[in-house]
Amino acid sequence: MEWLWPWIQVLCFLVLTDLLWTLPISKEQWPRLEDMELAEGYLRRFYHMSPSSGPRPRNRRATSALGEKIREMQGFFSLKQTGRLDLQTLSVMRKHRCGVPDVENYSFNPDQIKWKNHTITYRIDQYTPDLTQEEVDTSFRLALKVWSDAAPLKFIKVNHDKADIILSFAKKTHGDFFPFDGPKGVLAHAFEPGEDMGGDVHFDEDEIWTMGYNLFTVAAHELGHSLGLSHSKDPSSLMYPNYNYYNGAQYTLPRDDALGIQALYGKPVRKQDPPNLPKKCDPNFSVDAVAVFGQEIVFFKNRTTWTTYWNRLREGPSSTYLPSINSPVDAAYDIPAHGVAYVFTGNGQSDRLKGLTEASQHDRARFETECCFKEPLDLNYSPASKLSHFMQEAHKAHWHLAVLIVCFHRVPNAVKVLCVSGPKYWVVRQLKMKSHFGSIYDYGFPARVRHIDAAVHISEYGKTFFFIGRDYYR
């Protein structure tokens, strides 16, 4: 009988094990019904789990599918991948988060993951009553700045319907097949770049947008999606699905997010140091060009501009006065009768600024720059194109140039342009350039004058001014 004793022990163990498996599971071990509903809703929304027939899995296959999705979610959040709804997993599921799925196949435009242009427009379609419009505008502006500081992006606020990104606050069902869930839970969601709703950001109006829910952080995260970024597994990342709240004025984009946005749009362009303003009292001071634009007399020096209007002198970067001009100005002149101004830059090329004489200081930036020629030897028959050809050759020879214009008011469309280089000058009269040139000394300039820095004719006074260093002749 001794040989039966081991088999009796094995049989007792199997019976005891079977009894243990048939005992009811305690409430602490089996997830509650509301926990199962929370988990299923969470996994369907953020991990594309197929909906089951009820709140609990009814068969082994459903149980296996649920476990796989739980493990996938646990892996994304760096949790222990048990496949069970433990307390740590449920705690993550209950946190406030973004409404965009954590998996990457949520794209509506799989062929377009970024904006084609680096200048992106946005519009605020609907404000929240929880904050003032100024507070909302500031939060969005700071959120956009986070991304424009890390990549060569420029954001422009507009009021028309064709904005690339539209930001709005809405409740529950709001027309995009992704209804909000009320207070807490999902705070906002966004769409990746594309047409129609692409790039748009929606914020849940059922939330109380105060210091409790930092609008800046939520907006900065969602705008990352609007620019083409997915969620990050790095808990310190701005693109982590669960929100962490930051101070917008002092926030710096983490490395993980910076690398992501730069992979799409490149590294930011290094900002040039602001130009040193020339010292007007410097004994060696001279101007590069002088022109009359409408009612303003404009002086150019390097990248700085001075404008005089009604005895008021304004000083600032040339890019502020003429945003399209990026190089130092060699010469410029304006034809008020034609509504056209010509600006010659350091490369010998000219830009034609249409409508500049009618433009105010505020509107000037809206005018487009149009180059008036393409090839130096294939010229349009106009004084500007002939001058441009001449100035390109002069630029190669390192000559200093000055241009002035005289309009004959008695003769329609009659224009005479005098181009000065060193001690010589050339004349363009209407569409013909004279074949000969003259000497500035024929006009009484002293022998010590080796070149003229700038020249301008002010028809209002009937005077012509020649600028040489800090002096001028008229």
Quickly list its features.
474 residues, alpha+beta, Muramoyl-pentapeptide Carboxypeptidase, domain 1, Collagenase (Catalytic Domain), Hemopexin, five-stranded antiparallel beta sheet, elongated, metalloendopeptidase activity, zinc, zymogen, metal-binding, signal
- Specify the structural class: alpha+beta
Tell me the radius of gyration.
36 Å
Strand percent estimate: 15-25%
Indicate the mean pLDDT: 70
Distinct helical segment count: 9
CATH-assigned homologous superfamily of the largest domain: Hemopexin-like domain
Sequence stretches where pLDDT stays below 50 over 5 or more residues: 19-28, 105-110, 348-387, 397-401, 405-415, 429-436
Annotation, overall tally of beta strands:
22
Gross morphology is elongated
Describe the strand arrangement of the main beta sheet, using strand numbers.
1-5-6-4-2-3
Number of domains: 3
The helix fraction, in percent, is: 10-25%
The CATH architecture designation of the largest domain is 4 Propeller
Q: CATH class of the largest domain, anyone?
A: Mainly Beta
Terminal CA distance reads 135 Å
Fill in the CATH topology of the largest domain.
Hemopexin
Q: Tell me about the largest β-sheet.
A: 6 strands, mixed
Protein name: Matrix metallopeptidase 20a (enamelysin)
Signal peptide: 1-22
InterPro entries: Hemopexin-like_dom_sf (IPR036375), Hemopexin-like_repeat (IPR018487), M10A_MMP (IPR033739), MetalloPept_cat_dom_sf (IPR024079), Pept_M10_metallopeptidase (IPR001818), Pept_M10A (IPR021190), Peptidase_Metallo (IPR006026), Peptidoglycan-bd-like (IPR002477)
Keywords: Calcium, Extracellular matrix, Hydrolase, Metal-binding, Metalloprotease, Protease, Secreted, Signal, Zinc, Zymogen
